[in-house]
């Protein structure tokens, strides 16, 4: 069992949208470019997200999408289920007809309860993670990356003529970090 690109792309696009909606509606073309997701694929996903009232759309110039609810009130499970992503580890699709005995009667396979329990735990976990949690994680990651870049770009300036780099005073110049 695995999460397909449909669910991954929907969650990624929603994080992108939530991070940028403070400036107004976000276009799918911009999300497509930033996240390297096909525009036509995003259009399909956002149609489903809109029908499930997770996003609102604004038409016309300056239009695009915004969240229909606060990011803290949208869970990863909401997003995954909105785009019809199956989250089922059972081989029977939860129908309890995993196996047929010699008598031809359908029944549960020996591991049915294991996989059904995994399904419940996955849904519980995805329901416990909000879109805001993911936005916050992404902002921290971007800040860390910007800090690492600034440190890597730090310039040592030799202030004393003829002094070696090892014993010269240094000045660190850091790039501005934007989130």
UniProtKB/TrEMBL annotation:
Q: Which residues form a coiled coil?
A: none
- GO cellular-component term (any): cytosol
What InterPro entries does its record include?
TF_HTH_IscR, Tscrpt_reg_Rrf2, WH-like_DNA-bd_sf, WH_DNA-bd_sf
Question: Can you provide one Gene Ontology molecular function annotated for this UniProt record?
Answer: DNA-binding transcription factor activity
Q: Give the keywords, sorted.
A: DNA-binding
Q: Is Disulfide bond there in the keyword field?
A: no
* The keyword Repeat is assigned to this record: no
PROSITE patterns given in the database record: HTH_RRF2_2
Pfam families for this protein:
Rrf2
Which superkingdom, per the lineage? Bacteria
Quote the protein name from its UniProt record. Fe-S cluster assembly transcriptional regulator IscR
Upper lineage ranks? Bacteria, Pseudomonadati, Pseudomonadota, Betaproteobacteria, Burkholderiales
Q: Which gene encodes it?
A: iscR
């Amino acid at each position: 069992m695995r999460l397909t690109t449909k669910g991954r792309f929907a969650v990624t696009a929603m994080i992108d949208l939530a991070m940028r909606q403070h400036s107004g509606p976000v276009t799918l073309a911009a999300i497509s470019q930033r996240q390297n997701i096909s525009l036509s694929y995003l259009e399909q996903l956002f149609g489903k997200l809109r029908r499930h009232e997770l996003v609102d759309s604004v038409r016309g110039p300056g239009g695009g999408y915004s969240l229909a609810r606060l990011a803290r009130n949208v869970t990863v499970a909401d997003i995954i289920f909105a785009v019809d992503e199956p989250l089922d580890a059972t081989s029977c699709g939860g129908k309890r007809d995993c196996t047929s005995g010699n008598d031809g009667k359908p029944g549960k396979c020996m591991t049915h309860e294991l996989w059904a329990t995994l399904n419940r735990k996955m849904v519980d976990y995805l329901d416990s993670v909000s879109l805001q949690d993911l936005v916050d994680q992404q902002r921290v990651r971007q800040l860390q990356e910007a800090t690492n870049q600034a440190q890597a770009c730090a310039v040592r300036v030799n202030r004393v003529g003829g002094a070696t780099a090892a014993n010269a005073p240094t000045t660190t110049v850091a790039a501005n970090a934007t989130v």
